[in-house]
Design brief:
Order of helices and strands: EHEHEHEEHEEEHHEHHH
Number of strands: 9
Structural class: alpha/beta
Strand content: 15-25%
Radius of gyration: 18 Å
Helix content: 40-55%
Number of helices: 9
Distance between the termini: 42 Å
Length: 254
């Protein structure tokens, strides 16, 4: 039996936590544990979670440390076996058959980790973008931004034990750093179907220039280039950050 643990981190998410729980609850795959790590919410988040009619196993734990990386690591303490997905509060699985398709792929291909396509949406849902899968994997995809959406990434317990924990010293870019470390162990398997829909008004999506700086520093840690090449990569990354910054009003109000 393949068990899929879905880890959701939340904090003061009373307006969005139910849609994430509904998405997990409605999966047609039976063997799912929904692990919710709450960052000491002061609104009605916990009440909503406790009263939600979940059709999967649902467990709620409170975060002891601070920051997103610490919340991810707290979630890793409670995963059981087989497959793990991080689906933040407000994010949803693409449809009710996603986990079934993921498990079938894992059983057939025996991959250590994989990621699929993603559908991003603005706060009110008027803007949507279907991010298609790459034709093939190349490590250089990491050079310009994070090419892997963590909401659409599935890890096995085996590779998590090899990669270790998320870097809690990083306020942003902890998933970028984690994905690079995972890719140095094993090439990710490419799933050719949408796995998740994610809210583009989260912290990393809005703090574009801070995120750019974090990614730049992480990139230089793992990919060593000369000054000219680094300047080129920094410039491309900065232009992309400006483009994302210009999109913020549309993400927030559409």
């Amino acid at each position: 039996m393949i068990i899929c643990d879905i880890v959701t981190i939340s904090k003061n998410a009373e307006n969005i936590i139910a849609r994430t729980m509904t998405s997990v609850s409605n999966q047609d795959y039976s063997h799912i544990n929904h692990i919710i790590i709450d960052g000491q919410s002061t609104d009605l988040t916990i009440d909503i979670i406790n009263n939600f009619p979940h059709r999967k196993n649902c467990y709620v734990y409170f975060q002891k440390g601070s920051g997103i990386a610490a919340a991810f690591n707290e979630g890793l303490k409670y995963v059981t076996d087989n497959l793990i997905i991080f689906l933040n509060a407000g994010d949803t699985l693409a449809n009710s058959q996603v986990i079934t398709k993921v498990v079938e792929s894992y059983q057939n291909k025996k991959w250590l980790w994989a990621f699929g396509e993603t559908i991003s949406f603005s706060r009110k849902g008027f803007l949507k973008r279907h991010i298609k899968q790459y034709s093939q994997w190349n490590q250089e995809l990491f050079l310009y931004s994070n090419p892997i959406c963590h909401q659409s990434t599935i890890f096995t317990k085996e590779i998590l034990e090899k990669v270790g924990l998320y870097n809690e010293q990083l306020f942003l870019g902890m998933d970028y750093d984690f994905n690079i470390r995972a890719s140095l162990i094993e090439t990710p398997y490419l799933l050719k179907f949408p796995v998740s829909c994610y809210d583009t008004t989260g912290v990393s999506s809005l703090k574009v220039f801070q995120n750019y700086k974090a990614h730049r520093n992480i990139r230089k840690k793992y990919f060593i280039y000369n000054t000219q090449r680094n300047l080129q990569l920094d410039t491309i990354g900065y232009i992309k950050a400006i483009q994302r910054f210009c999109m913020i009003p549309l993400k927030l109000y559409l």
